[in-house]
Amino acid sequence: GAGVSQSPSNKVTEKGKDVELRCDPISGHTALYWYRQSLGQGLEFLIYFQGNSAPDKSGLPSDRFSAERTGGSVSTLTIQRTQQEDSAVYLCASSLGGGSYGYTFGSGTRLTVV
Amino acid sequence: DQQVKQNSPSLSVQEGRISILNCDYTNSMFDYFLWYKKYPAEGPTFLISISSIKDKNEDGRFTVFLNKSAKHLSLHIVPSQPGDSAVYFCASIRKTGANNLFFGTGTRLTVIP
């Protein structure tokens, strides 16, 4: 597609349930990033994928968070046993990688844990 | 540890005037800086960037200034237009060996017609 596509756009889930958030990056972009923005906070880095390299998971806040990227394209961010503090907007971005920092962001998934 | 800081959560400016958004960073290894603009319910979009070898970069109505000694950068918008009303994020990266941008908390700009 022309841009980065994220789904769902909104997700309300009960505390303790697992959720999956999907990101479809721009075709040909080798780098993919997940960030989240909690209320009143900046964009917090979560995880980074670059081509076939091992992902940089240094930003994941706990072991309840995981992400995968299949075939170098679509990525799924999974949050297990959701907590209320997980409520945030989860943003995915892609770039050409190799020193290109003009990330293209998706519109995000607003996750609300009740 | 917030390595990129935007201390003004909001700014209001009259249409036609200059908007100045400020950003401070703590990591002296950062050597590339960007500004992103975000409208409600949309993802941030890249606006303008500057390398640490420069102190100014201009693109139309937008100019970014970098003061490395003060670890400070600013975005000037002139003249400001109502369509510029958005949240502006400052971001920084160390180009060598880095994997991700570090973002500030954002400044909400409101341009009053």
Total helical elements of chain A: 0
Number of strands of chain A: 10
Structural class determined from secondary elements of chain B: mainly beta
Determine the N-to-C terminus distance of chain A.
33 Å
Chain-averaged pLDDT of chain B = 94
Share of helix of chain B, binned: under 10%
Structure summarized in a few sentences:
Chain A has 114 residues and is mostly beta strands. Chain A has strands at residues 5-7, 10-13, 19-24, 31-37, 43-50, 65-69, 75-79, 88-95, 104-105, 109-113. Chain A is globular, with a radius of gyration of 13 Å.
Written account of the structure:
With 114 residues, chain A is mainly beta. Chain A is 0% helix and 46% strand. In chain A, the strands form two sheets. In chain A, strands 2, 4, 5, 8, 9 and 10 form a six-stranded mixed sheet that branches. In chain A, strands 1-3-7-6 form a four-stranded antiparallel sheet, with no helix packed on it. In chain A, a hairpin with an 8-residue loop joins strand 8 (88-95) and strand 9 (104-105). The termini of chain A are far apart. The mean pLDDT of chain A is 92. With 113 residues, chain B is mostly beta strands. Chain B contains no helices and eleven strands. In chain B, the strands form two sheets. In chain B, strands 2, 4, 5, 9, 10 and 11 form a six-stranded mixed sheet that branches. The interface between A and B is medium-sized, with 25 and 25 residues.
What would the keywords be for this entry?
heterodimer; A: 114 residues; six-stranded mixed sheet; four-stranded antiparallel sheet; 10 strands; B: 113 residues; mainly beta; 53% strand
